């Protein structure tokens, strides 16, 4: 029975949710497991702000984990969604907007010759892996420790020790047979990749990598790392899958590839996209070489499908978001990211907190106690003084700034983060830095 009076405080809402859903959430990090305390239940968001069930407004540095690049509730995006809703929610048939969104993607990422829309990043990477296996007729996949590609069984494998270690399951419920088909290598280690190919090259279907890792905190790919992956995979007849679910259309119109591959002269065989491509609606996609993509059904033998794929409301949001992501938006996000990371660093320094700012384009995160080495791989990311983040996070939250509830996540900005929003963050930083120092 539902209670007669609707709960409204986050505590009450979380109590109710915990009785109804595992951990009270539908995606684990929302439960504030690593920072503790009660997760805030959000009810609305506009521009750079998000508001909880008790009417408290926060400057949002999560931005829905990336999608809200142009700011929450951007008027063009809302208008496009409202117009699409009026025409019906879902048709289970092709709609004109799908090609419109595909064209906008290809204009920005020319290596995408064909695109398949799906609903989540997990589906995009899962399909890319199946496609790579179908296309090459090989079984093994290389991923890097600390890279997240969604919750498909084969890619939940975490760090294997040493080089080319056959991974053990990283999650209960993943069979050893599945995990054994993923080779987990240390990030930024070209020699490890070369060794894996020397040993298993004839059976490696693909290397999948985040274009710039942002799920172990942000880690910058060493100069030439992604280019080396492109060179090695193509020399061995394997595919390179560049996962731009998080970075795509965020670190610039051409994603992180646009900042690197476009200049360096390499292009992955497949890209995966998500987040910004749907502007907050469930859209993701995979795309790339036409000969590879045409291996997908109905043309090819690799099956993939989705009842709600290319949903008209979601497509409308994606089209409007990419159109609203102007050069000015990217300039704002870049500038705000530079200002904010410098301000965070200055505050931590003033409080005597050892740290490094980890950066990839406009994405950044803070890694505590790592100034001597920075963070170049998962081992270093895990070795940081992560306990300092909890008090830092809660001090910011109390001051009205909503940070990602884990030190291993990037901080997300939008084109709507104006001076007023930024000043609220800057005002909160000294106390948060002091709290981190005292941890
Ligand atoms: N790849 C990357 C790089 C991601 O960051 C994520 C999600 N954060 C995914 C894939 C999975 O996307 P989704 O949560 O939409 O399944």
3D architecture notes:
This protein has two domains: 10-61 and 326-438, Aspartate Aminotransferase, domain 1 (Alpha-Beta Complex); 75-324, Type I PLP-dependent aspartate aminotransferase-like (Major domain) (Aspartate Aminotransferase, domain 2). The radius of gyration is 21 Å and the shape is globular. With 439 residues, it is of the alpha/beta class. It has 15 helices and 14 strands. The N and C termini lie far apart (43 Å). The longest helix is centred in the last third of the chain and has 24 residues, at 327-350. Helix 2 runs antiparallel to helix 11, helix 6 (190-200) runs parallel beside helix 7 (225-235) and helix 14 packs across helix 15. Helices cover 37% and strands 15% of the residues. An eight-stranded mixed sheet has the order 4-11-10-9-8-5-7-6, with helices on both faces. The chain binds 4'-deoxy-4'-aminopyridoxal-5'-phosphate. Residues 65, 120-122, 125, 148-150, 210, 215, 243, 245-246, 274, 284 line the site of 4'-deoxy-4'-aminopyridoxal-5'-phosphate.
């Amino acid at each position: 029975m539902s209670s007669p009076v609707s709960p409204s405080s986050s505590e009450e809402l979380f109590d109710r949710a915990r009785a109804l859903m595992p951990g009270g959430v539908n995606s684990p990090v929302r439960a504030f497991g690593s920072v503790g305390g009660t997760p805030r239940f959000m009810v609305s968001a506009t521009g750079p702000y998000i508001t909880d069930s008790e009417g408290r407004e926060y400057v949002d540095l999560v931005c829905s984990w990336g999608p809200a690049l142009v700011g929450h509730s951007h008027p063009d995006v809302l208008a496009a969604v409202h117009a699409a809703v009026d025409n019906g929610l879902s048709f289970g048939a092709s709609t004109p907007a799908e090609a419109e969104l595909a064209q906008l993607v290809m204009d920005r990422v020319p290596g995408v010759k064909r695109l398949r829309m799906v609903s989540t990043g997990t589906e995009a990477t899962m399909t890319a892996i199946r496609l790579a296996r179908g296309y090459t007729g090989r079984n093994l996949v290389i991923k890097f420790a600390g890279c997240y590609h969604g919750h498909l069984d084969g890619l939940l494998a975490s760090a294997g020790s040493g080089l080319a270690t056959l991974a053990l399951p990283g999650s209960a419920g993943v069979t050893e047979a599945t995990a054994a088909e993923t080779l987990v290598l240390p990030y930024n280690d070209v020699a490890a990749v070369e060794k894996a190919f020397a040993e298993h090259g004839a059976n490696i279907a693909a290397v999948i990598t985040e274009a710039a890792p942002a799920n172990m905190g942000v880690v910058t790919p060493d100069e030439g790392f992604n280019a080396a992956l492109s060179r090695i995979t193509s020399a061995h007849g394997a595919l390179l899958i560049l996962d731009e679910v998080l970075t795509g259309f965020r670190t610039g119109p051409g994603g992180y590839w646009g900042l690197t591959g476009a200049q360096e002269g390499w292009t992955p065989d497949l890209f995966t996209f998500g987040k910004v491509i749907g502007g907050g609606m469930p859209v993701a996609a995979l795309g790339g070489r036409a000969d590879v993509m045409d291996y997908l059904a109905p043309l090819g033998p690799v099956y993939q499908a989705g009842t709600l794929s290319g949903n008209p409301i979601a497509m409308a949001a994606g089209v409007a978001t990419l159109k609203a992501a102007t050069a000015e938006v990217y300039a704002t996000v870049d500038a705000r990211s530079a200002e904010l990371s410098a301000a965070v660093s200055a505050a931590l320094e003033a409080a005597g907190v050892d740290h490094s700012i980890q950066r990839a384009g406009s994405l950044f995160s803070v890694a505590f106690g790592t100034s001597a080495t920075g963070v170049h791989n998962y081992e270093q990311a895990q070795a940081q003084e992560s306990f300092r983040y909890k008090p830092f996070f809660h001090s910011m939250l109390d001051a009205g700034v909503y940070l990602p509830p884990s030190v291993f996540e990037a901080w997300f900005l939008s084109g709507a983060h104006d001076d007023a929003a930024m000043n609220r963050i800057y005002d909160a930083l000294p106390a948060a830095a002091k709290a981190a120092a005292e941890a």
